[in-house]
Give the backbone structure.
Amino acid sequence: MQSVILNALARLFFVAMLIFSVFILLRGHDSPGGGFIGGLAAAAAYTVITLAFGAAKAERWLILHPVVLMGVGLFCAILSGLPPLIGDFGGFLYHLWWEGQIGFLQLKLGTTLLFDLGVYFVVVGGVLSILFRMYETGAEEAN
Amino acid sequence: MSTDLLVILPIILPLTMAGFCAVFWLRPGWQRWITVTGMTLMAAAAFALLAGVLSQGVMVSQPGNWAAPFGIAIVADPLSALAVAAASLVALAASVYAFRGVSENALHGGFFPLFCGLMVGVNGAFLTGDIFNLYVWFEVLLVCAIGLLVVHRDGVNLDAAVKYAALNLFGTTMFLTAVAFLYGAAGTLNFADLARVVPELGASAGLTFALVLFLLSLGVKAAAFPLFFWLPIAYHTTPPVVSALFGALLTKVGIYAAFRIFMLLFEGTTGLVGEIVVWMAAITMITGAIAALVQTDLRRMLAFLIVSGMGYLMMGLALSTPEGLGAASFYLIHDIIVKGAVFLLAGVIAVAAGSSDLTKIGGLIRTHPVLAVIFLGAGLSLAGLPPFSGFWAKVLVADAAFDGARPVLGGIALGTGLVSLLCVVKIWMEAFWKTGPEGMRVTARLPLVMMVPATALVLVSLAIGLYADPLMDMAARAGAGLADPSAYIEAVMGAGE
């Protein structure tokens, strides 16, 4: 089904939702949010594209294959837990923090951000691999 | 290497490899090599951990530096380190075997990432020091196990997957409910903390309910009588490499969890529960062996022999003596290796003769004498004859039963050994000795990647049998650690201070 309104607004929604998903990811440090919810929001952004233009276009826009994205995410998450093991000052996933100022911007960065980014990618990849797969099966049955 | 690294490596190595496999999703051929490399590293890490535990005692890591009982502790004591080492050996053998035993469908469907994921779940369950975390690892390995069944995309495996999933999800849900009741009664989930708190609580309805639910759910997981019926249905249709992994590892994780929970929380099985476990063990043992004897399909027979083996393991729990638990620990290691070996060999036989139905094959000794000898070795170990590891495993278990004033149980164990010997003789006579039926298609050249890992596992069993002392010492330490958990509690609760 093609809808002119959806097609016209899909790109706009896509960009807005993707930016908002990153905002959710970042604010997850000490407010509601984080990698999981942010990932769901990003997956919803790609879902809008899938609904408007089909799965093929959404897959192109994702650049990476969704399962590959899951693998990358898993890597980020594992990587974020390794520093204490390598430096021998704590258990797996003991997170490190860096606080500083760049210009007027007060920053508090930690390895937790890398972990959350990993979760974000895993969730986007996981949800979209299911979605794309369902679209494929649906298309096969329709033919 | 630091303790923290050593304890966590058997979990994060396969997890990393699962991630690698996912990154190379579009190159399934590479995933084979990634998995073999990963399993080699994991086996090395597991043996390093075992060496560490044997020299330093119980090793604990607190991920995120959250001290027990508030964080989730990862704990390696002699039993868990031994189990991880044996599981890693079987996984390594299976990953080499998987160079030939995996269909194209399965390869593209993500067989190898799921393989790695299964090992994450298995090692996680062996190493966790937290009962809720144990539930999470159960889920991880359950999801990966179902995945390994459905990736083949054929009717038989899908049917097995549905049955396996339904019953095991039921078991896992009961386990979660039991954990909830336990938490309600004790207010903590850390094993070591529970072991301190629960004995002082006194009897309560919630605790009793939790105990019964643990018994039922772990009975499903460990395929104990009368809850074993899902296992032969689910295991015999799967590709050999999958059934080797399942047969060697999944039920063992269930019995391992039963050891941990009952010994740490309920100070062994005493009173009515003790009697129930004794009879569950006896009936599981004997029904498994007798049901195996009447089967005509090789892999169905082996599936029932898994059930029978679980009975021996439960005997250790039923006895709750250090000797009994030590014997069961020895049996656990023997069982992981030998069940892996026989299922891999069953796959080789199916390749050689074109079927695993014993009525349709025969005469393999003339075409494949080496395979006949190797399978005889594995079979004798399974039945408990010297010079293989099975002999010592069964002797130790029976001996512990007689010492533990359970002569009837010891007698049943010996009788069951006889029935399993009959099973093995039947398999060997049917597949190798009798003249093969007309029209049987024999494959003359067997792939080395299938023969070598299966043979290696049989040789491990032989080595343990010939040189049993080191493993007996380790198993005795594992048993003593289960019977008297004070070292475990001290290591976990002291680590945070």
Q: What stands out?
A: DSSP finds six helices and two strands in chain A. Residues 111-142 of chain A form the longest helix (32 residues). Chain A has one domain: 4-142.
